[in-house]
Amino acid sequence: MRGGIFINNLYLGVDIGSISTKGVLIDKDNNIVASHYLYTEGNPISAVKRLIAVLKEKVDLRKNRVVGVGTTGSARKLIGIILNADVVKNEITAHAVGTLSIYPDVKTILEIGGQDSKIIIIRNGVVVDYAMNTLCAAGTGAFLSSQATRLKIDVKDMGDIALGSKNPTNIAARCTVFAESDLVHKAQIGHKLEDIIAGLCKAVVNNYLNNVGKGKRIEKPIIFQGGVSKNKGVKHFFEDVLQENVIVNENSHLMGALGVAILASKNSKNKVFNFNIVDIDFETRGIECSGCPNNCEIINIYKDGKVIDCFGNRCENGVSNLTK
């Protein structure tokens, strides 16, 4: 109660990745009260500030207060520090918890994001196996987006166009460079646009199942999530190859944020979150990681001259740069 007005307790979940940043506010019953999705644009701190500003406008702070915060995603540690989070969890846990809150009987989660993908195997409500692909962008949202640009179409239209194909083109998509070369060749010899796009969508599915899903026992119910789940063509080919129904929820892109918000509600210290994020002086330094052949550009984040986190690494070798 505040001045005779009942105040609802809400919980904030933030999923911040290299491509996109997602946030949700949920109530005590795990219902999404407000949500927002935006591009990270290489600056997770700025992205989260923009996210918080939008969410603030979507709720009446005279009747609601946020008393729990959770973060997940590639920049979860950094953002967890900035938001003074109660919970900082990896993507596997967050996606599993979020999905189970809506589909308690789920057995397989297929997730394809902007620059990585993962599979989560669940039995009796418990994660028993998982795999992630963070080493190559082939078959991810970034891959599809780059091909859409090459074909001069909106990436959002790819799914609908793909469904119009009767003869999908065979595209070699295990490597982005080879896929682009193959795509250009197929276009030059007269393959139809819808067939090429359908071929790209099918290649994403085959690449995922042959790499991320290799050796995994995929059982229904099967939930497809991540930004690429909005592509109807990719969903269609998952169902075609697996010969099973694949479910895509309207909030499939928010499952990580939902999951970590739920975890925050269970671990809340009942401290009221301040939407006016205090400005902090940060310094970023970019270095090239030599830990593996990817040679990723690692962005180290410094606060008062001390490294507090990094992002940009596609494998755990990049974590060693925290000491530099």
SSE map:
Elements: E1 8-16, E2 20-26, E3 32-39, H1 44-58, E4 64-72, H2 76-83, E5 87-88, H3 91-102, E6 108-112, E7 117-123, E8 126-133, H4 141-150, H5 158-162, H6 176-188, H7 193-211, E9 222-225, H8 232-242, E10 246-247, H9 255-266, E11 282-288, E12 297-303, E13 306-311
Parallel strand pairs: 1-4, 4-5, 6-9, 9-10
Antiparallel strand pairs: 1-2, 2-3, 6-7, 7-8, 11-12, 12-13
What does this structure look like?
By secondary structure, the chain is an alpha/beta fold. The protein has helices spanning 44-58, 76-83, 91-102, 141-150, 158-162, 176-188, 193-211, 232-242, 255-266; strands at residues 8-16, 20-26, 32-39, 64-72, 87-88, 108-112, 117-123, 126-133, 222-225, 246-247, 282-288, 297-303, 306-311. The strands form three sheets. The protein has a five-stranded mixed β-sheet, sandwiched between helices. Strands 8-7-6-9-10 form a five-stranded mixed β-sheet, with helices on both faces. Helix 7 crosses helix 8. It is globular, with a radius of gyration of 21 Å.
